[in-house]
Amino acid sequence: MSINQSPDYRQWPDAAGHFGIYGGRFVSETLISALDWLAEAYDELRDDPVFKSHFQQDLQHFVGRPTPLYYAKRLTQVLDGAHIYFKREDLNHTGAHKINNTIGQALLAKHLGKKRVIAETGAGQHGVATATIAARLGLKCQVYMGAEDVQRQSLNVYRMKLLGAEVIPVHSGSKTLKDAMNEALRDWVTEVDTTFYIIGTVAGPHPYPMIVRDFQSVIGLEVKEQFPTLAGQALPDALVACVGGGSNAMGLFYPFLEQEEVALYGVEAGGQGLDTKAHAAPLCRGQVGVLHGNRTYLMTDDHGQIQATDSISAGLDYPGVGPEHAWLKDLGRAQYVSVTDEQALQAFRQVTLTEGIMPALETSHALAYLKELAPSLGAGKHIVVNLSGRGDKDILTVAKLDGIEF
Amino acid sequence: MSRIQACFNVLKQANKKALIPYVTVGDPNVEVTLSLLTEMVAKGADIIELGVPFSDPMADGPVIQKACERALRQGVSLEQVLALVARFRQSDASTPIVLMGYLNPIECLGYERFVEQAVAAGVDGVLVVDMPPEEGRQLGELAKASELDMIYLLAPTTSRARMQLICEQASGYVYYVSLKGVTGARTPDATVVAERVSLIKEITDIPVAVGFGVKDGASAVMLSQQADGVVVGSALVSLIEKYVEAQPEPSYQALSEELGALLAGIRLALDTN
């Protein structure tokens, strides 16, 4: 790609779902027709005024959008650098950005006449968001969740049950998010006639990465509107978001891709450190491969087997990443960095104490990177960080580290 | 002519259907796999599909998932699968071998190296479960240049137009997945399968093998009515699992005999119907 000419980001993915060499559609033949139908339906509906207004209505009245853009004054002072703003996705109904996408996809499911939805979930946020919209629309809902995550996130498991969803623990492989996704794909291939698979992140086979990005881009679009009045300049200097699969980051970044003066930072889960094998940072330390329907950066061993990942945050504990992020990395449009579990925990405590906002452990990764970025950008600059979710679900995890058992 | 084409030609002249057993390489270890290959050929296997173990076999049911996990515990890699094929070729120069698996291990090795090494080892065909033809052009061209057959799946959900597209890129045979689901799930409706296979045969001259749901002689006969062959996988892998988990110690001799007997039964049923 030439340095002088930036690519037309809006043109991607191409018709086959590729972002450069990434993305695509790597699934078994049985699912191809369902993906074709989904792509056609989405193509028809994305600009349909009725569908759009239905989606907007739900975002406003059910989710509570627009979410505020909040100036984190005390954190700005403490970190002694650039001004810091939080995009408050934690204030969404169900407590994270995930619901933006599940509403969009559930409306697609309804349009396609599907009575049953399935989802995979790691931290449980996407599962809760799916169960929530399924309850509201009267859809049958089953959520696949790695058996290890079922243990780690018992509160969210119970929330999903209360919402009428069935949570199916997955005992194969590493018993985490990737295995839940395998199992959801197996379910879908079997029940493809009756079932809509609501994927929770900007990964998977085309058209999912595009659809999820589009539904989540409401985040960045709102920031674009809100930022000038708050900061007195048109654009922020930098955007920061955590990246597991990458949906909250993509949602924030996408509307800003053409404004090359806005620096983009995706923060991956460094686990116990990038020099150990115990992390979940495929963009920082992975290699290109194919998993779960798309070509992207992956955590694999030398023989192409997918490696176990490690992160204190279940929502980032995934060996792959959305293909558009892989492409943005190669183009140099976004920078991908990582912070460790320890740094994320420090940020969790710091933001809770200085701002009275308890972030999710996933989000805490993005916040932890501010410690480096805010001073280096310097005073007078402006950073918007996606406060993608609230930390209520993580209280038991943090308490346990403090030696407190409930 | 490739070994696979030659095999189907011979079968056609004898008015026989191809019996294609599947086992995962390295389940429970590479030596046992090698001895099972010989036994399967002796009991009437025409072509052998060798499963390349993968950590995330999304299209497979629990039986083959567990087989992959057992093989990966032995550290079985794609390179070792190729080494096994080379050893098999020392004693069997004619039985076609097809590798079946997922794309990432091949991506990791690199397409060119993979094709070169597979051909050198004596592999005849490749079936990559998560690589539909749209994503398979690059590997397909390399394979074609080296006379390695590219086997593609056709599903109950595949439209006629897509069938055409797939058959244009396929060689050796096409694999009709008899049901919507994962491997080893349940028994499909034989009438529906026969209709679909007839439709495929209107489109292409490439032989059609039916898989998913073949577990014994009766199901093999029922599902292969219009087809040129059957693939039997999970039934064999279940048998391996039974012996692997046997207490106090598995007898692989007995496994080989029982697996051979199962295949011989399917062979007999196919040949006498």
Q: Quick recap of the structure?
A:
The complex is a heterodimer of chains A (406) and B (273). Chain A contains 16 helices and 14 strands.
List keywords for this structure.
heterodimer, A: 406 residues, alpha/beta, Rossmann fold, 2 domains, 6-stranded mixed sheet, 4-stranded antiparallel sheet, B: 273 residues, TIM Barrel, 9-stranded parallel sheet, 51% helix
Chart the SSEs and their pairings.
The complex is a heterodimer of chains A (406) and B (273).
Chain A: E1 18-19, E2 22-26, H1 32-45, H2 49-63, E3 69-71, H3 73-79, E4 83-87, H4 98-111, E5 116-121, H5 125-137, E6 140-146, H6 147-152, H7 154-162, E7 166-170, H8 177-190, E8 195-197, H9 208-216, H10 218-231, E9 238-242, H11 247-253, E10 263-269, H12 282-285, E11 287-291, E12 293-298, H13 323-331, E13 334-339, H14 341-355, H15 361-377, E14 382-386, H16 395-401
Helix pairs in contact in A: 2-4, 3-14, 4-5, 4-9, 5-7, 9-11, 10-11, 14-15
Chain B: H1 3-13, E1 18-24, H2 30-42, E2 48-51, H3 62-73, H4 78-91, E3 97-101, H5 103-109, H6 111-121, E4 125-128, H7 137-145, E5 149-150, E6 153-154, H8 160-169, E7 174-177, H9 190-203, E8 208-211, H10 217-223, E9 229-232, H11 234-244, H12 252-271
Parallel strand pairs in B: 1-2, 1-9, 2-3, 3-4, 4-5, 6-7, 7-8, 8-9
Helix pairs in contact in B: 2-4, 2-12, 3-11, 4-6, 5-6, 10-12, 11-12
